[in-house]
């Protein structure tokens, strides 16, 4: 019974691998068509750049440096060093 189940599992893995290969080929075909058109390439590059700038802005806005009023030291990335004796 275990050998049969192992063989079935292997069959499923092989089928999945074939599907992944077919998907990769289809994706590469689309990419190949895309890169033939300079305007489409420029549009994709612009979209990716805009997304990257937006992500960077979101990260920056989500991690503001603590101000001096909150006890932070802007020069040290918002970390206040306190001596303990």
Into which percentage range does the β-strand content fall? under 5%
Helix content: 55-70%
How many helices? The count is 2
Rg to the nearest angstrom? 26 Å
Q: Describe the global form.
A: flat
Along the chain, the helix and strand elements come as HH
Write a short abstract of this structure.
The protein has 85 residues and is mostly helical.
Key phrases:
85 residues, mainly alpha
Task: Characterise this structure.
By secondary structure, the protein is mainly alpha-helical. It has one domain. 69% of the residues lie in helices and 0% in strands. The protein is built from two helices and no strands. The longest helix has 34 residues. The radius of gyration is 26 Å and the shape is flat. The protein starts with a helix and ends in a 23-residue tail after the last helix. About 6% of the residues have low confidence.
């Amino acid at each position: 019974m275990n050998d049969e189940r192992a063989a079935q599992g292997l069959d499923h893995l092989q089928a999945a691998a074939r599907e992944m290969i077919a998907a990769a080929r289809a994706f590469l075909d689309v990419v190949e068509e895309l890169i033939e058109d300079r305007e489409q390439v420029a549009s994709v590059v612009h979209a990716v750049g805009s997304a990257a700038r937006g992500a960077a802005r979101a990260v920056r806005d989500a991690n503001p440096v603590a101000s001096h009023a909150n006890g932070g030291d802007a020069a040290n990335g918002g970390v206040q060093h306190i001596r303990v004796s």
